[in-house]
């Protein structure tokens, strides 16, 4: 029996080596899941303390808003740039640059916060530097997810595309749920700066690991020649892609808008105190994130819907959830609405990446992933501004407008995608 032990140990080492260096699509998909998860965790771990540490750094509420908005503008402007760059130099370098770049800029960001906190009053130069650092950070926020989405499209067959993209959507949803929890716990046992340091370590560590874990290929398309042949005749810019992007915007508008409006609505419509509404809003977003993850797991394991089926169901669920918010002041129904919206957002976020990748040629996968990432930037800029403005007119008006936009997106999507996209 003993003579089998060395063979068993050798076999285990071979398995570990194969996982770390192998090009099997299954293993590469797991690595892309990790890259996406870590990239978004870097953002969401710091979200619970961002406003508080900005206030400690003597930033006024308006300056905090400008800082966050400029980060979203950077995401909007540079997401397609990173996507096109991944088409030219390969997915792996862009993923690595994205993770390590975010980590290094978080170091600059937290050091500027510490300098500003150390002063006794607002220093205009430091405020400008903090806003600039957030803009630079925004440049890298969608870098790794954009390249990971394009990489996933390269190694996934059209038939498996929706399911594989759902795994990356699951990574996004998981980071939305556990990121704020980790950040809140870290800040409670340490300082407001601790979540930033943890994000820095995670981003740089996994950025370095991806250098060794991902295959060093300039063009990943060769892994699926049949998929390439089926899409080479498709143009990048098309009415069909436009329909997908508008549908994706309608989903992201709601997700981003609710982040701003939830606590306000709980205070004004439900009658909760300011402190209670903030705590309840955090709970609702955890529930929304859990719902988002559950529907994505169900899609991967059971449903196997096409990308088009996922998006149509997504928008209908989001419209239903918004109507529940508009038609009720009951907290239980409000809770149900967030579960419904979370399910819709989960389907929409996953299907957008899959659908967009299926309507462009294989050599434009990076550009398509960049265009998808742009929807986050657009939503991050437009949704808070529009939502906060119309909320002052009527507290239910933002949800009505989001529902109407979703309905418009649904009609446009059906019209632009009359033929079922293979996935």
TrEMBL record:
InterPro entries: MFS, MFS_dom, MFS_trans_sf, Tet-R_TetA/multi-R_MdtG-like. It is a multi-pass membrane protein. PROSITE patterns: MFS (PS50850). GO terms for molecular function: transmembrane transporter activity. Signal peptide: none annotated. It comes from the Bacteria. One of its GO terms (cellular component) is plasma membrane. The chain crosses the membrane at residues 32-53, 59-82, 94-117, 123-147, 168-190, 196-215, 236-261, 281-303, 315-332, 338-360, 372-391, 397-415. Pfam families: MFS_1. It is found in: Cell membrane. Keywords: Membrane, Transmembrane, Transmembrane helix, Transport. PANTHER family: MEMBRANE PROTEIN, TRANSPORT PROTEIN. This is Permease, major facilitator superfamily. It comes from Liquorilactobacillus satsumensis DSM 16230 = JCM 12392.
């Amino acid at each position: 029996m003993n003579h089998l032990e060395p063979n068993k140990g050798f076999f285990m080492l071979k398995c570990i080596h194969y996982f770390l260096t192998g090009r099997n699509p299954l293993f590469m998909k797991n690595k892309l899941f990790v890259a996406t998860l870590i990239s978004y965790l870097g953002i969401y771990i710091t979200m619970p303390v961002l406003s508080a540490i900005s206030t400690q750094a003597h930033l006024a509420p308006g300056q905090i808003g400008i800082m966050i908005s400029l980060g979203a503008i950077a995401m909007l402007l540079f997401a397609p740039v990173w996507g096109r760059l991944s088409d030219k130099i390969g997915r792996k370098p862009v993923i690595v640059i994205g993770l390590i770049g975010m980590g290094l800029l978080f170091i600059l960001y937290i050091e500027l916060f510490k300098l500003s906190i150390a002063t006794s009053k607002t220093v205009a130069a430091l405020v400008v530097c903090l806003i600039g650092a957030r803009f630079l950070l925004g440049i890298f926020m969608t870098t790794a997810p954009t390249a990971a989405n394009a990489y996933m499209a390269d190694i996934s067959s059209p038939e498996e595309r929706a399911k594989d993209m759902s795994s990356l959507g699951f990574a996004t949803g998981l980071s939305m749920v556990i990121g704020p929890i980790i950040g809140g716990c870290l800040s409670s046992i340490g300082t407001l700066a601790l979540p930033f340091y943890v994000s820095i370590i995670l981003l740089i560590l996994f950025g370095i690991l991806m250098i060794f874990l991902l295959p060093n290929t300039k063009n990943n398309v060769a892994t699926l020649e049949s998929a390439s042949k089926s899409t080479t005749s498709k143009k990048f810019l098309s009415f069909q892609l436009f329909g997908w992007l508008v549908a994706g915007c309608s989903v992201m508008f709601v997700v981003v808008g609710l982040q701003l409006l939830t606590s306000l609505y709980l205070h004004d419509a439900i009658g909760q105190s300011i402190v209670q509404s903030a705590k309840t809003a955090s709970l609702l977003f955890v529930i929304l994130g859990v719902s988002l993850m559950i529907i994505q797991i169900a899609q991967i394991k059971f449903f196997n819907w096409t990308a088009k089926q996922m998006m149509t169901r997504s928008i209908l669920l989001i419209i239903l959830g918004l109507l529940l918010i508009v038609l009720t002041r009951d907290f239980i129904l409000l809770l149900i609405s967030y579960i419904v919206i979370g399910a819709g957002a989960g389907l929409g976020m996953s299907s957008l990446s899959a659908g967009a990748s299926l309507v462009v040629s294989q050599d434009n996968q990076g550009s398509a992933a960049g265009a998808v990432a742009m929807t986050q930037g657009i939503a991050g800029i437009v949704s808070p501004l529009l939502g906060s403005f119309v909320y002052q007119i009527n507290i239910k008006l933002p949800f009505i407008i989001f529902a109407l936009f979703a309905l418009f997106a649904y009609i446009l999507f059906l019209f632009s995608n009359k033929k079922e996209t293979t996935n």
